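The material for today's practical consists of a large collection of protein records. An example says more than a description, so a record of this kind follows:
***
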Amino acid sequence: MTSPASIPSATISQLQRQVRAQQEEIAHLHQLMEKKEAEWEATKAALFEQFRLAIERQFGPSTEKYRVEQGDLLINEAEVAVDEESAEEEVDATPDEAAAEPRQPAKRRPRGGRVALPPELPRVEVVHELPDEARHCGHDGTELKEIGKEVSEELHVVPARIEVIRHVRLKYACPACEEGVLIAPAPAKLLPKSNASATLLAYVATAKHQDALPLYRQSQIFARHGAEIPRNTLARWMVQVGERLLPLVDALRQHLLQAPLIHMDETTLQVNTEPDRKASATSYMWLQRGGPPGQQVVLFDYDASRAGRVPVRLLGDYAGRLVTDGYEGYAEVVRRNGITHAGCWAHARRKFVEAQKVQPKGKTGKADWALNQIRKLYAVETQAKGLDPEARLALREQKSRPLITQLRTWLDKSVQQVLPKSTLGKALHYLDGQWQRLTRFLDDGVIPLDNNAAENAIRPFVIGRKNWLFSQTPSGAHASAAIYSLIETAKANGLSPYDYLQFVFETLPTLGEEEDLTSLLPWHWKDTLPV
């Protein structure tokens, strides 16, 4: 047996190096295992959050409303103390304001109460008389005299009635020479080769694009009223109407591009028979909205792509203000035109709402603090409603900028403490990535806090899509975009979509090709409401 003393020192050194190498390898493996375990835990937590969020989306309330009281923010962080101090300062500073501007309680109609019938509805009086034999006194037989009346009202509906209008054009000729027959001119029609009146076309367009009633259901309704109108015929009418409306849509576009601020959004659409594309391919409906109160323009545009070239095409050389969500497809037109690009706080808030939903029940956390801070920003905007841009900017400088400063300090610390793949981490990184756009409203009183104006305008299209599902052809998608544009523009200006479409469909055929179409714009047809 070899004694340790007889082992060469070189061999001992080599063995020691091997042992150290093995120890280092084992330590490295332990680090890898700990890292993997942390990744697995993070993945498990993220999947669990996604599972809870999916359940919440499926079975929970769809509203994003929330209420976080100041005392409920039980987060052991310095920001809470700062926030409470600012809240106390607001309370101390507001008695004079409260005395000057007392808050009026919201008026609510009692549940089950009767709704007053609108005074602008036409009235048909039905007089109920006593019979002749009852109009004499039962005691002495004297004829009774009218001393008053009692009036009650009930709402009456006249069901839809389909009728045929016969245009009879009289002919005239000279009885002496029997030459030169004259006939009354034919009435101008939006679709000259069609037997559909302007009223019928407006009815079909409003039913589909405003009331989300698919054409095949309308065909069934017409059949019940005795008029067999195939769905293909209705579809052909809508495509032809959309083509006739393009000049008016272009006039609306010229008005929109003069607006100081434009909202934009986009949503998906399926077009079944598009050249060189599968039926399942995703296309897009783009929306733009802008203009002063009472002259709002809402435009829909169809495109097969969501690429940045689409905003470039739609905005042309527009160089004003643009409000969008966080989609980066707008970056190219912003860079090319020098546009002031603002973000949407509603989207940032929505991500924190999702993070709040996956929190353990009864617990408060960072999502609650962020939502409470965003709620205060919206409270400032409520105070600023109705102010001119300069006064709104001054109010934001006084009240919104301190809130943003607090939120930035909190964000810088929180983004380092939360896993990026978690629901809260995604909300924090979205807020951090969009920060520059989200805070542009502090330097410009014209810029709103969010892109809700566009989302509200595009919502009817999304609701309708759930019913009619898809467009069969690109021409149908373009036609829908044109009709949606007129309907939503009418609504944005406080007008009845059906009445406005009927006016346009009756008047457009009477105008010459070179005539100005500005007379057909909603605010030139009827007084519009400042929305």
